[in-house]
Amino acid sequence: IERVHLAAAGTGAAVLGTVGRKLYHYLYETCDENWLNFNAAGLKNDLDRKLYGQHVAAQVILKAVTGFMNNKNPKKPLVLSLHGSTGTGKTFVSQLIAENIYIQGIKSNFVHLFTATAHFPHDAHIDKYKTHLQEWIRGNVSICPRSMFIFDEMDKMHPGLMDSIKPYLDFSDNLDGVSYRQAIFIFLSNAGGEMINEVTVKFWRDGRDREEIQLRDLETELSQSVFSNEGSGLRNSVLIDKKLVDFFVPFLPLEYKHVIQCGLAEMASQGFTPTNIVIKRMADDLIFFPKEERVFSVQGCKLIANKLHFYI
Ligand SMILES: Nc1ncnc2c1ncn2[C@@H]1O[C@H](COP(=O)(O)OP(=O)(O)OP(=O)(O)O)[C@@H](O)[C@H]1O
User: Fold this and answer.
1) Which atom in ligand 1 lies closest to the alpha carbon of residue 51?
2) 160 is in an annotated binding site
3) ipTM score
4) Is the pLDDT of residue 9 over 60?
5) Ligand 1 centroid to residue 117 C-alpha, Å
6) Is the dihedral of CA 296, 299, 301, 307 positive or negative?
7) Is the separation of the CB atoms in 247 and 64 below 8 Å?
8) Per the annotation, does 85 bind a ligand?
9) Which class for 86: exposed (0-12), middle (13-18), buried (19 or more C-beta within 10 A)?
């Protein structure tokens, strides 16, 4: 009888243990398949339906992220560098990527946003910052190898600071016992934006379709203009010399019709019935270039969320 009791108690404890573990996984985000689940179809769908006017970026990002996430044994972390003028969707796309990898999306404990100017504002403390940044990356990747780091305003980052993250982006088995091969680094910057805008305006002036623009029309010039730009922190950076960036992703300037699409989506997300007249009134008040023809929005879709309530 005692043995039966013991066995029953053992089974009870095991069941409780399983339930406890399940509950723990349910309540607390863990770095495993309970909270990490790459959804390739979801990413494609989001890029097709939610991201407007960025056919080049959508294509590159889908291929890059899907290839990387499906690779069981990547040789280095994925490093994407997103370029374009303000409000064209660089931060937004990073959010879409996060939403299709982490159940918690951009709010996941494994997604980290770093803004050079906000986090490390004083050049004089650069050596201290370097150590902090390296420890921060190392600490986060040792907690979860599938960590995502989004570096905003990369063009304003001190080159020394940028170079200090270089070892983590490279091909290496591990550094101090930590492997970085499953991590994702996304750099955001306005560097190269002007060149991308010029190419897009030229296509438009030549009467060519926006959709005809291909990555190769921008890629070479993009890497040259980004890294030769005097004001760009990316200039002379080891990141480039060592070819640590896997993909340079160009974001085109948005046209009037894309601004309308952004406005309608924003209206819906704020709980209003999307109305063309309202959004058109708002779009008409925005600034467009070239000045005469008013084709491309200077601020992309950036100001829409804030402006909307003036027009409703
Ligand atoms: N191409 C786009 N498709 C759909 N929505 C967009 C697009 N671009 C911008 N938006 C909307 O505008 C908002 C602002 O854009 P976002 O922050 O992604 O711009 P950004 O390119 O990161 O700009 P910045 O260089 O100033 O940081 C987004 O949250 C999104 O709602």
Assistant:
1) 3
2) no
3) 0.99
4) yes
5) 19
6) negative
7) yes
8) yes
9) middle
